[in-house]
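Form 7-S
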Amino acid sequence: MKSILLVPFHERGYEKLAKYLEKISLPVHLPLPVELCREPILREWASSGLWGYIRVWSPLMEFLSHYRGHTCYLTLRHFEETIDTSIKLLGLVVKAKVFSKIDLSEWLTLISERVKSSAPTNWSGVLVIDRFVEYVLLVKRDVMVDYVLQLEEFIPTPLDLLVLVRSSVVNWNCDVKSIIEWVIKYLGEYVLFSRDLTEAYDMLKKSREYRDLVTNCTSDELILTSLSSSLSYHLNTPSKLFF
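Output:
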């Protein structure tokens, strides 16, 4: 069996993931650094500098200690580069908030015109994906799977949209500034003033303004399906999607 499990990158998502993985006996492929999945003696070294990620991943730490049927498919270098980009991105958010001005060239220079998938295309068992960008890239590479599961609603964040539109992976029929304005709102308001990433993500999901913008500005089937899904989400019976 070859399946994909979609898990939003936030605290509640990984709590559900840990509980779900305890109930299955299939090989699992996780979007964590390979260094973190090696011997426990390396775990503290590998996690240094990744405290923001560790806070989200923490429910999986005990699972990694006693379950041997897993592999991790990302690297520390991947996360180091992501953190570096995030710091620069936050600088642009602060600049936009202070000066009430968006320099489009600065934003577009920061986001690469070419985005590469980091997920494997050949695996057996369950491939866990916690980023909408990665999911879209995998589907558009025509990777065949038996089915796709999601533990709860899985929608693109404004950052996902910016990466996908900048790299021309999905179409966007509106001004790209509309996405950047939502990146600023999401990071500068939702994330900044929320208790955790779960609360920020929930606020985004509940925003009718955000959903309307996305549905009016793109015709990408994956994105529209994620936003219009009326499926129910239960821990013990994850929703099933097909592509």
